[in-house]
Design goal:
It is built from ten helices and nine strands. It is an alpha+beta fold. The N terminus is likely disordered. Keywords: DNA-binding, Transcription, Transcription regulation. This is AraC family transcriptional regulator.
């Protein structure tokens, strides 16, 4: 896999960049950059990584991330298997903090925008009416030009800076300690885990992927992911089980083993620890939201 590099995705002659993405899968590389980023999933499912945050994603999920916070939208395994009926779509917007000049954010009129930028350092998932408004504005950005596009982006930031319909993603103590070489190593680990999490994965296996001893890898992973590898693997498995429970095509014991857990009792315990629900209660809650 390619190592992540901090290159600007914004053309030198543009104030910001907006792109419509359509591909068999989203970029599978763990990376970070100096720009603020807005990203909405229009089509596709998978697992989202923002700093030390891990959760499934689906169409409609909208996230705002600040500069240099590592992120990855890892499409589900089936998107890499060549099925031409499966593909992903999304809209991404990049802009720099000095979009309106270096002094603008210091003015009193920019107070709420400054607060938004501070919140974005942990990544923000936007929901509710704010999600609908922001989504519509992002789609409009694809078709506007010149100063009208700048006004549309400002309107979008206005919506985000005034809403309370969001949740912060990375933990409060998270800081990015990755370098380009680290991201290449972490990409290898992520790719291996996402491909094999349904099977038993040992620490020795993953340490070998990273070309490290088990003890060195344990320390390395905890430093860069802000959690143990075991906790990370459990979060991946629980995220997958949430999607299976929502699909309602398997009973709970099938979901347990299909998600990589060896015993039903451990699955139930880990599921409740992470989601605050039992698997059965989660399935019922999800069904109720669909009514």
């Amino acid at each position: 896999m390619k190592a992540a590099v901090q290159k600007s995705p914004i053309s030198p002659d543009c104030a910001f960049e907006v792109k419509f993405l359509k591909a068999p899968h989203f970029d599978p590389n763990w990376h970070f950059h100096s720009e603020y980023q807005l990203f909405i999933v229009l089509k596709g499912t998978g697992t989202r990584f923002i700093g030390d945050h891990v959760t499934p994603f689906q169409p409609g999920h909208l996230v705002f991330t600040g500069p240099n916070i590592p992120h990855l939208w890892q499409s589900d395994h089936e998107y890499f298997e060549g099925d031409k009926t499966l593909w992903t779509e999304g809209i991404v917007v990049y802009f720099q903090e000095d979009l309106l000049g270096k002094e603008f954010l210091q003015k009193k009129e920019s107070w709420q925008l400054r607060q938004l930028f501070i919140r974005s350092q942990r990544g923000m998932e936007i929901s509710g009416a704010a999600n609908q408004q922001a989504s519509a504005l992002m789609k409009r950005l694809l078709h506007t030009t010149d100063f009208e596009s700048v006004l549309t982006l400002l309107q979008l930031l206005h919506v985000l800076s005034h809403t309370s319909e969001y949740r912060l993603l990375a933990s409060g103590g998270y800081t990015n300690q990755l370098k380009a070489g680290d991201t290449e190593r972490m990409n290898k680990v992520h790719a291996y885990v996402m491909k094999n999490f349904r099977e038993k994965i040992t620490l020795d296996e993953v340490a070998a992927i990273a070309n490290m001893t088990s003890s060195s890898f344990s320390r390395y992973f905890k430093t860069h992911a802000n959690k143990t590898f075991s906790d990370f693997l459990t979060e991946i498995r629980i995220g997958h089980s949430c999607k299976l429970l929502a699909a309602r095509k398997m009973d709970i014991s099938q979901v347990c083993y299909e998600s990589g857990f060896q015993t039903l009792s451990n699955f139930n315990r880990q599921f409740k620890a992470i989601t605050q629900y039992s698997p059965l209660a989660y399935r019922k809650k999800y069904a109720d939201t669909m009514l």
